[in-house]
Amino acid sequence: MTPYAITVAPHSDLQVLAKIIKVMEYMPDIELPDKEEVSCHMIARALAEFFPVQYKDGYFPRKGYQHSWLVTQTGNVIDAYPWAIVGGPVMLDMRLGSPWNGMFQAHPLLSLENEEFKRNTQTVTEAMREVINKLGIKPEPLVVRAA
User: Fold this and answer.
1) Residues whose CB falls within 8 Å of the CB of residue 82, separated by 6 or more in sequence, listed in order
2) Against a cut of 0.85, is the pTM above it?
3) What is d(CA 112, CA 132) in angstroms, rounded to the nearest whole number?
4) What is the pLDDT of residues 33-43, one digit of tens each?
5) Counting Cβ atoms within 10 Å, is residue 59 exposed (0-12), middle (13-18) or buried (19+)?
6) What is the Cα–Cα distance from 76 to 146, expressed in whole angstroms?
7) Do residues 53 and 70 lie in contact, with contact meaning Cβ atoms separated by under 8 Å?
């Protein structure tokens, strides 16, 4: 059965999602210093290096938990590393009538602006680069042009 969201999602978004799913399927378990866990914040930033998406930081408004996610060029959300869920990445239709609209609240997370986080993110990005190269996926990062 074809999910409704597939019928309304642009083909380009579905292609990006399929590639992200494949990359995440082959990502190795990464051991970071000080038993730090790989986070959604690191994964979102790493994926944005290779695919035409923007990463966003913020919160789930209802409970206030921090989270990071991706936004496609057409405004759909790809939650590449959904926390506390078995499965994913997933794409969410964020149009006005969608039950997911408003699920993510973008907001700067100053706690992510330290050198340890940046080093750990770089470690995750390099592991992802290896996976992408092994899978033969051509990186196509989003190019933001100045107005």
Assistant:
1) 40, 88, 89, 90
2) yes
3) 25
4) 988 999 999 99
5) middle
6) 22
7) yes
Sign, CA dihedral 57-70-43-128, equals negative
Measured between alpha carbons, how far is residue 37 from residues 12, 31, 41, 67 in Å?
Answer: 31, 8, 11, 14
**What are 71's two structure tokens?**
């936004």
Contacts of 116 (CB under 8 A, 6+ apart): 33, 34, 36
Beta-carbon contacts of 56 under 8 Å, excluding residues fewer than 6 positions away, are 44, 68, 69, 70, 71, 104, 106
The rounded Cα 32 to chain-centroid distance in angstroms is 19
Q: Which of 43, 21, 22, 44 is nearest to 32 (CA)?
A: 43
58, 107 contact by CB (below 8 A): yes
In the predicted model, is pLDDT for residue 103 greater than 80? no
- Cα 131 from chain centre: 16
Helix residue spans in the chain (DSSP H): 4-8, 11-26, 40-48, 115-135
- CB 122 within 8 Å of CB 41: no
Tokens (6 digits) for 45: 């930033």
